[in-house]
Amino acid sequence: MPNNNSIINLGNIGEPARVLIEKISDAIAGLYRPYQIRRIAEAEAEAEKIKATTEIEISEIQRRALKRFLSEEAKKQNNMETITEKAIGMLSESSNPTNII
């Protein structure tokens, strides 16, 4: 059954016309393919730059957080050691371990 949805009835030249249009379309696509490949490559490279920059920024934040964490933990450790030294100095031979809170 013929397709009657077409606006233009090409009759017997319909198939050759379709093939011609496809060939022209392929030729035009071939001309613009290198341009499209470059555009895609540039977009992907830009995305990689953005990703790398973000990772550097995150690394910088993590480095600062680690530095802060180590500084805080060093202060806590120093406090514990100072308290332990003072407590040891307060012990005597008669100290009872069960009375230590």
Précis, in short:
With 101 residues, the protein is an all-alpha fold.
Structure overview:
With 101 residues, the protein is mostly helical. It has one domain (11-89). The chain is built from one helix and no strands. The protein has one helix spanning 14-90. The longest helix has 77 residues, at 14-90. The model has no long low-confidence stretch (mean pLDDT 85).
Core attributes:
101 residues; mainly alpha; 1 helix; 0% strand; rod-shaped
Describe the global form.
Answer: rod-shaped
Poorly predicted regions: none
Radius of gyration: 39 Å
Report on the biggest sheet. Answer: none
Number of domains: 1
Mean pLDDT, rounded to whole units? Answer: 85
The amount of beta strand, in percent, is under 5%
How do the helices and strands line up, and which of them pair or pack?
Elements: H1 14-90
